Automatic annotation (TrEMBL):
The lineage of its organism: Bacteria, Pseudomonadati, Pseudomonadota, Alphaproteobacteria, Hyphomicrobiales. It is a multi-pass membrane protein. It comes from Bradyrhizobium denitrificans. The chain crosses the membrane at residues 16-39, 51-70, 91-111, 160-179. Its cofactor is heme b. The keyword ATP-binding does not apply. Belongs to the cytochrome b561 family. It holds the Pfam family Ni_hydr_CYTB. Keywords: Cell membrane, Electron transport, Heme, Iron, Membrane, Metal-binding, Transmembrane, Transmembrane helix, Transport. It is found in: Cell membrane. This is Cytochrome b. Residues 10-191 form the Cytochrome b561 bacterial/Ni-hydrogenase domain. It comes from the Bacteria.
Length: 195
């Protein structure tokens, strides 16, 4: 399988970005809902589990920039047959997915007052960064005023918007595969060729 895309299908690198981002995003959700449903999120034993959520969130955020650069610099497969409205809706839906891949990790990171431990290294909390130091000293906004609205955005988008956008994406892929019987899904599957 070639690394680059063709007019017929996505290449190995695009598939890697898609499936690794999707896996990290979904597992991050599963982990945080485990904490919400089965643990006291303020208890010390919840911290290592929440750290897994933070690690996965940073991975999603780290992958989104090269993924976008690859998307804009590499040829994209031809769109499937469909109306102009369907193509516009597909572009809007993909824009929504990319917005999620930016907003969720960004608000998650800047709204968390704890370092993220990757094992071999730690990513300092946003509160410990020079950027927040500038916000605090330059704008006069302390952590107690900064964190709640950021956290509210993260939780609102995660609880009410993200699942809807992801569910629509999955439903559209299944619709193309099971109803339209075109190659929209197969051209993104790892190790599969849509041709």
């Amino acid at each position: 399988m070639p690394w680059t895309n063709t007019k017929l299908e996505f290449g190995a690198l695009a598939k890697f970005f898609h499936w690794s981002s999707a896996a990290a995003f979904i597992v991050a959700y599963a982990v945080v809902y485990y904490v919400i449903w089965f643990m006291d999120d303020m208890a010390p034993e919840a911290l290592p589990v929440l750290n897994v959520h933070w690690v996965l969130g940073i991975i999603v955020g780290f992958l989104v920039l090269p993924r976008l650069l690859w998307r804009f610099t590499n040829v994209q497969p031809d769109p499937p047959h469909g109306s102009r409205v369907e193509h516009v809706l597909a572009h809007v839906a993909h824009g929504g997915l990319y917005a999620l891949l930016i907003v969720m990790p960004l608000t998650g990171y800047i709204g968390t007052d704890a370092a993220t431990d990757f094992g071999l290294f730690k990513v300092p909390s946003f509160r410990e960064t020079a950027v927040f130091g500038w916000i605090e000293s330059g704008l006069g906004i302390d952590w107690d005023r900064f964190e709640p609205p950021v956290d509210a955005i993260h939780h609102f988008v995660g609880k009410w918007i993200a699942w809807t956008v992801v569910a629509l994406h999955v439903a559209a892929a299944l619709f193309h595969h099971l109803v339209r019987r075109d190659n929209v899904l197969t051209r993104m599957l790892p190790g599969r060729s849509a041709a």
